[in-house]
Design goal:
CATH architecture of chain B: 3-Layer(aba) Sandwich
Helix content of chain A: 10-25%
Low-confidence stretches of chain A: 395-402
Number of helices of chain B: 6
CATH topology of the largest domain in chain A: Rossmann fold
Helix content of chain B: 25-40%
Number of domains of chain A: 3
Shape of chain B: globular
Distance between the termini of chain B: 66 Å
Largest sheet of chain B: 9 strands, mixed
Oligomer: heterodimer
Structural class of chain A: alpha/beta
Mean pLDDT of chain B: 90
Number of domains of chain B: 1
Order of helices and strands of chain B: EEEEEHEHEHEHEEEEHEEEH
Number of strands of chain B: 15
Largest sheet of chain A: 7 strands, parallel
Number of strands of chain A: 22
CATH architecture of the largest domain in chain A: 3-Layer(aba) Sandwich
Number of helices of chain A: 9
Chain lengths: 402, 264
């Protein structure tokens, strides 16, 4: 087992030692230093004061990594229409599979989808496993997990990639837990080591920090990735790869859930599809001032989006939120107005083609990733900019979908 | 109707920074609060109790000071609470956290409905709820935006999907994670605060749990390990502009023309 041992005899100034922990997990009581349950095992204390804190790890039985081969991608779809995040993941899988010489697998489940699965043959999967059963018509967690489990037991992939969609974020953790293995949600960078360990990088602790995560002794290694984080590969003209039709006994697809109805929602324009986005951040002082941001978005033929504080204040529709807890976007142009640039926000827009940031604070972290860092007050720049832009063409409103 | 709500204490601020020289996390202030998404889960439980009767319990996991969020739940009207706390739980990832909570839930007695918030604001993963349901071998529904009806056997909910709304009827016992805005959370009541300020918050430690294998908890029970933490890569800032609002606006308009986002 791994733990941090404290060498009490080497303690010189306990207050300093208590302060080193960002999670307040080090306590000093009755002249005794101890670590409490708040410890995140970040090992900062070990790095800073190696004579006092020692990290010890005992040998554990090792998983046989060679018994797990292949990179599997879950094909997310709505009634057979494959979600584009699936292609993005297949592209990443291909990149990684080339490094370690593993095959690429794809898993698709649903009802009457076998012909739709053909499309996956244009994106480089070696084998596409299809489970086509009436019980899988609508998403219900138990039958979907049962199929995923069956697939993993048959194929034994080393890595499983799932899109961070509504279904993916419910299905991936449930399946990972069934295999008692690790899952890293919302990875923004993925790579693979020669020993097949998956490098999973994501923003962590809700703050301005990235964490590099490994699953060193468990297989398969699960990761979810949001839509628009990776690039989709070109669709190949000629299909390749093999379609494998699988079956699973119906009694294994029993469920305590009954789907009574599936209602189509009104189609709203989504910020993920916008080519131009203007973002309102905390620098917008009151709700009424959103109109100037919205007008700028309208004049540029784009959409307005927002950050978490504004959603929490209830000013805008949650569907317009950019960031890890909102949507990921990759527009041609994004203008952030009074946005400070937390990691969780940046993770949702960092791949945009042109990033223009307006903020009064020259130290704002948004400027670390902006192509054009405009140090100025949005209350001065935007009204003046609106005057400098050509008059609006017609009055089509393309603002937020509220 | 017995309802159990899982809640978490999160940092009051998301302004965490990394000192690039020392590699040390800087956390300004030590303010903590209840994960805002959990307030919706508690409110959902309170609303259900109003019509169905029964009891609401809350369970949290964390250091002893996390008891504060249970106190807050008492002030909102929750009947009972407990805190899973033990240094052996430290360093838990999603799997170990969900497993520890599932073990704690078994200690809390029988329940019909388990409620979780949609996600936490410090982890942002939204994965613990589904994993708890797996460990308890009960069905779960995520992203519930509305409760349509319920009786003693089942609950009918609206699950929010990107393009559709799926109406699911789920048999008890089950777990649901609720969306923000399912109901408006009530504020803690002063009257309840006075009434509950001495109400105890029992601790549940490893030795109270059914499974006491330390390899299932904390860092040892966590398949994922943080190799390192680092500040996000900086992009080469191509240009930094300063000047008056007027000057900046003019320059920006020129740039937008140059990039062909506005016509000449």
């Amino acid at each position: 087992m791994a733990k941090i041992i404290i060498h009490q005899e080497n303690i010189k100034n306990p207050e300093e030692l208590v302060d080193v922990c960002p999670f307040n997990a080090i306590e000093y009581t009755n002249e005794y230093l101890s670590i409490n349950a708040a410890c995140k095992m970040c090992k900062i204390c070990v790095k800073k004061y190696p004579d006092v804190f020692e990290y010890v790890e005992e040998e554990q039985p090792q998983v046989d990594k060679s018994a797990w081969r292949g990179i599997a991608v879950y094909a997310d779809h709505v009634e057979g229409d494959i979600h584009p995040v699936t292609f993005e993941l297949l592209g990443k899988a291909r990149e990684m599979a080339a490094k370690i010489g593993h095959p690429i697998y794809c898993l698709m489940m649903g009802d009457h989808i076998s012909d739709k699965a053909e499309e996956l043959r244009h994106y480089g999967a070696d084998k596409i496993f299809v489970y086509d059963k009436p019980e899988l018509k609508d998403f219900r967690i138990e039958p979907y997990t049962a199929v995923f489990e069956d697939f993993i037991n048959k194929v034994r992939p080393s890595i499983v990639l799932v899109g961070g969609t509504t279904v993916g974020r419910s299905l991936a953790p449930r399946t990972a837990a069934r295999f008692r293995t690790g899952l890293t949600a919302d990875c923004t960078i993925l790579d693979v080591q020669d020993n097949t360990d998956l490098d999973q990088i994501r923003p962590a602790f809700g703050g301005n920090i990235m964490a590099h995560i490994h699953t060193p002794n468990h297989r398969p290694q699960f990761a979810t990735v949001r839509y628009k984080i990776f690039d989709a590969p070109e669709r190949t003209e000629n299909p390749s790869g093999e379609l494998v039709i699988e079956d699973i006994p119906s009694q294994r697809l029993k469920s305590r859930i009954r789907v009574l109805e599936v209602r189509k929602k009104d189609k709203v324009q989504s910020i993920e599809d916008a080519e131009v986005i203007v973002v309102a951040g905390k620098g917008v002082k009151k709700e009424a001032d959103l109109s100037m941001i919205r007008e700028l978005a309208d004049r540029l033929g784009g959409m307005m989006a927002t950050t978490r504080p504004l959603i929490e204040a209830g000013w805008t529709d949650p569907r317009t939120q950019i960031g890890l807890s909102g949507r990921t976007v990759k527009p041609k142009l994004i203008i952030t107005c009074g946005v400070s640039g937390s990691v969780q926000f940046v993770a949702g827009m960092n791949n945009s083609e042109n990033i223009i940031a307006i903020n009064t604070d020259p130290k704002a972290t948004i400027f670390d990733i902006a192509h054009y860092a405009i140090i100025g007050d949005i209350y001065e720049v935007i009204p003046a900019l609106l005057k400098n832009l050509p008059a609006p063409e017609g009055q089509t409103h393309k603002g937020d979908p509220s | 109707m017995n309802i159990l709500v899982c809640i978490k204490q999160v940092p009051g601020t998301t302004e965490v920074d990394l000192d690039e020289k020392t590699g040390v996390l800087k956390r300004d202030g030590i303010d903590s609060k209840m994960n805002p998404y959990d307030l919706y889960a508690i409110e959902t439980a309170l609303k259900i109790r109003e019509t169905q009767g029964g009891k609401i319990k809350v369970l949290s996991m964390g250091p002893p000071q996390a008891a504060q969020v249970i106190r807050e739940a008492y002030m909102m009207g929750v009947d009972e609470g407990a805190l899973l706390t033990d240094p052996k739980f430290a360093g838990a990832d999603v799997l170990a956290t969900a497993y520890t909570l599932s073990q704690g839930i078994r200690k809390m007695g029988d329940f019909d409905l388990l409620l979780c918030g949609k996600m936490t604001t410090d982890g942002d993963t939204a994965q613990v709820g589904p994993e708890i349901a797996e460990f308890l071998q009960i069905p779960h529904v995520s992203n519930v935006r509305k409760i349509l009806s319920m009786d003693e056997k089942a609950i009918t909910v609206e699950m929010d999907m990107p393009e559709t709304v799926e109406i699911q009827e789920v048999l008890f016992p089950c777990l649901i994670t609720v969306e923000k805005d399912i109901y408006t959370p009530r504020l803690p009541s002063f009257k309840l605060k006075l009434k509950t300020q001495t109400k105890e918050i029992p601790h549940i430690t490893l030795q109270d749990l059914e499974d006491q294998d330390i390899y299932h908890y904390g860092l040892n029970g966590s398949p994922t390990q943080v190799l390192k933490i680092f500040p996000p890569p900086k992009k080469e800032v191509s240009e930094v502009w300063t000047g008056t609002g007027e000057e900046l606006a003019r320059r920006l308009a020129e740039k937008l023309k140059e990039l062909k986002f506005i016509r000449e």
